[in-house]
Amino acid sequence: MVRRSKSLLISVIGGSNANGEYLDLAYQVGQELARRGAIVVCGGLAGIMKSVCKGAKEAGGTTIGILPGNDPGEANPYVDLPICTGIGYARNVIVVKSGRAVIAIDGAFGTLSEIGHALGDAIPVIGLRTWNISQDNKVARYIIPANDPVDAVEKAIAAARQRSSRKKRAK
Question: How distant is the alpha carbon of residue 135 from its chain centre?
């Protein structure tokens, strides 16, 4: 039996209407993930999703787009593997659960829902200029803050590997 090594999948989430500054951060995150051999998983559409995919592709990486609709042609041009769900925003759960860690950049309420789904399932979330979450009027430290794209990728990969090794030890 041939055993394949499993690739590291990192989900990247963020707004579809992001401005240039956030798009540049996403592009750099995509490049850094690809340079480290990680596969990018995202929602497959515009904004942060398109920029992270473009960065990954230009650095020789692989991208997966979890699409809300039924048409693979809706994916941005940098998605290698479009996965049609036909379930609209409910696909946010699939986006975050597909990665071993999540990097959140900017984002509106769809991104916030993805952060909530990830945190609810103990999937590490690294935040790069994204939402702050408070509880009882105090900032909660659920999201691991990153200073820049390199820091975000390093923290995501470390968290993903730690999560994977915990899972192996539990078996």
Answer: 24
Mean pLDDT value of segment 132-139? 84
Give the H or E element holding residue 96: helix 91-98
53-82: average pLDDT: 98
pLDDT band of residue 170 (cuts 50, 70, 90) is low
Separation CA 63–CA 44 (nearest Å): 9
Q: Is residue 70 over pLDDT 90?
A: yes
Task: Give the residue ranges of DSSP H helices in 36-90.
Answer: 48-58
pTM of this structure: 0.93
12's enclosing H/E stretch is strand 9-14
Average pLDDT taken over every residue of the chain: 93
Residue whose pair of structure tokens reads 């990247």 in the numeric block? 12
Question: E strands along 22-116, which residues?
Answer: 39-42, 63-67, 81-84, 101-105
Secondary structure of residue 1 in the 3-state scheme: coil
Taking the C-alpha atoms of residue 113 and residue 10, their distance in angstroms, rounded to an integer, is 17
Q: Which secondary structure element, helix H or strand E, spans residue 128, and what is its range?
A: strand 125-128
Domain map of the chain by residue range?
11-170
CATH architecture of the domain with range 11-170: 3-Layer(aba) Sandwich (3.40)
